[in-house]
Design goal:
The strands form two sheets. Strands 1, 2, 3, 4 and 6 form a five-stranded antiparallel β-sheet that branches. Strands 5-7-8-9 form a four-stranded antiparallel β-sheet, covered by helices on one side. The chain is built from one helix and nine strands, in the order αβββββββββ. By secondary structure, the protein is α+β, with helices and mostly antiparallel strands.
Length: 176
């Protein structure tokens, strides 16, 4: 009986750490799927409404949302953008274990510039990155790099000619 208990204890000690990695990997995949869906929604809204839209990501606050160029009669007119409200899938939060960065493809983010959520940073210190989606079906060429605490990364690349999103790299360590 004592041998069985010892064996169960050893097996439990070996298996439990694997669950943490699996959970964080699931958070990373889920966050990537949400951002792909948001980018597709921004593209669809831009083409449908014939107004530029953009996907905004505030890495410091851990949130993302869609904005549309203001039209006559909106609260913000002309070149200003207003946050989409009441459109399902137009805003969301990143889990605290996931960080995000928006960059031009091929641009290397320095280790000290890696986005990390800071609870001490005041809201005005948050800097948002935005990816533009145009009414003609094109978009700004950008990559969104998501990373978990273990160093696993997923990069989502926005194709400029089609505004479609594809996963270009996933794994641990430096992104190309």
């Amino acid at each position: 009986m004592m041998v069985v208990i010892v064996l169960l204890g050893i097996l439990t000690a070996m298996i439990v750490p694997e669950f943490r990695g699996t959970y964080e990997a699931a958070l990373l995949r889920t966050s990537a799927r949400q951002l792909v869906a948001a980018a597709n929604l921004a593209y669809s809204q831009a083409v449908t409404t014939r107004r530029p839209h953009r996907l905004c990501i505030d890495a410091a606050a851990g949130r993302w949302w869609l904005e549309a160029r203001g039209a006559a009669g909106d609260a913000v007119e002309g070149p200003g953008f207003v946050e989409l409200r009441g459109v399902p899938g137009s805003a969301g939060r990143l889990p605290p274990a996931i960080s995000a960065a928006v960059r031009a493809p091929g641009e290397h983010a320095a280790e000290d510039r890696r986005p990390r959520r800071s609870l001490a940073a005041p809201p005005e210190a948050s800097v948002k990155d935005a990816i533009d989606f145009r009414p003609d079906g094109t978009a700004q060429e950008r990559e969104v790099v998501l990373e978990d605490r273990e160093g696993f990364r997923v990069a989502l690349r926005i194709q400029p000619a089609t505004a479609r999103v594809r996963v270009v790299k996933s794994g641990r360590g430096e992104m190309p």
